[in-house]
Amino acid sequence: MTTLADSSSAVREPALRGQTVVLLGGSSGIGLETARCARAVGAQVVLTGRDPERLRRAAADVGAQQHAAFDVHDPDRLDAFFRSLPAPVDHVMVTAGSPYYAPLPDMDIADAGRYVADEVRLKLEVARHAGGTVRSGGTLLFMGGTGGRRPAVGISLTALLTVGMPALTANLALELAPVRVNLIAAGFVDTPLSASLLGGDLDKRREQLRTTLPIRRVVGPEDVAALALHIMVNTALTGATFDVDGGQQII
Q1: Strands 44-49 and 89-94
Q2: What is the pLDDT of residue 1?
Q3: Which residues lie across from 207 on neighbouring strands?
Q4: Contact, 13 vs 43, CB < 8 A?
Q5: pLDDT tens string 157-185
Q6: Lowest mean pLDDT: which of 2-6, 38-42, 83-87, 201-205?
Q7: Is residue 89 assigned to a domain?
Q8: Domain of 42?
Q9: Can you name the residues that pair with 134 across neighbouring β-strands?
Q10: Does any domain span residue 2?
Q11: Domain count across the chain
């Protein structure tokens, strides 16, 4: 009989050994950190990004199996990419994209409409491709946010998508089963995207979070990556939204 001590000291296989993780938006930030973590536990990774040079550096950094530079909002390029994958793959994670902030008087309504349409279409296109590309029990994982849950001036479109994504995720989990579909909703994460949005206010925001968050530190991309890998490995998880914000919503 195997004892508890024997079990705890046994050598375990890396959690994702032999599996393939596809990162749409994997050249920096959360996507790249997830690629690093996946490689550390035995996975092969495939990266995409819009900037060819930054993507090339990221792919070399993690030893990516494959990488492709294109805009994921281009449906023809997205289709060609999925056709090029060594199917079936095990997990697809979508981190590409950025929030849209503008108060109503300053908003370009046509541009705002295109933004919402592009974001929704991307999720639906990826989901449709995942249905024929991701193996049974594998994962389609979306990235969203928590900031839009509290009303504020200038975040109307972000709030719209923030509220809608959990419902879309749950419905897609039924449509794509037994492929699992989940959503990570992050608060502030210290990434290059956050730096580009905040500019000179970045350090002020970091310090504010260090002193007010219950965890007394800023959430980093490694925190989100750790959650992403858990969702990939735990095959009981589907149709759910997982918050990672250091307690930002409760203060």
Answers
A1: unpaired
A2: 43
A3: none
A4: no
A5: 999 999 999 999 999 999 999 999 999 99
A6: 2-6
A7: yes
A8: 15-244
A9: 89
A10: no
A11: 1
DSSP result, 104-115: GGG--HHHHHHH
**What are the helix (H) ranges across the chain?**
4-9, 29-40, 52-62, 75-84, 109-133, 156-176, 192-198, 202-212, 221-233
- What is residue 41's predicted lDDT score, i.e. its pLDDT? 96
Do the beta carbons of residue 225 and residue 33 sit within 8 Å? yes
- Within a domain: 35: yes
CA-based R_g, the chain, Å: 19
Q: Check whether the bond before 88 is cis (ω within 30° of 0).
A: yes
Residue 86 has pLDDT above 90, yes or no: no
- Residue 145, amino acid: G
The pLDDT value given to residue 63 = 97
Are the CB atoms for 82 and 127 separated by under 8 Å? no
Task: Judge whether 8 lies within some domain.
Answer: no
Distances from the Cα of 227 to the Cα of 10, 122, 182, 221, angstroms: 24, 23, 11, 10
- For range 47-52, the mean pLDDT: 97
Residue 10 has pLDDT above 60, yes or no: no
Whether the predicted pLDDT of 5 surpasses 60: no
| Burial readout 76-95 (b: 16 or more C-beta within 10 A, e: otherwise) | eebeebbeebeeebbbbbbb
CA 203 to chain centre: 24
Structure tokens at 93: 């994670």
Alpha carbon distances (Å) from 25 to 59, 61, 237: 12, 15, 23
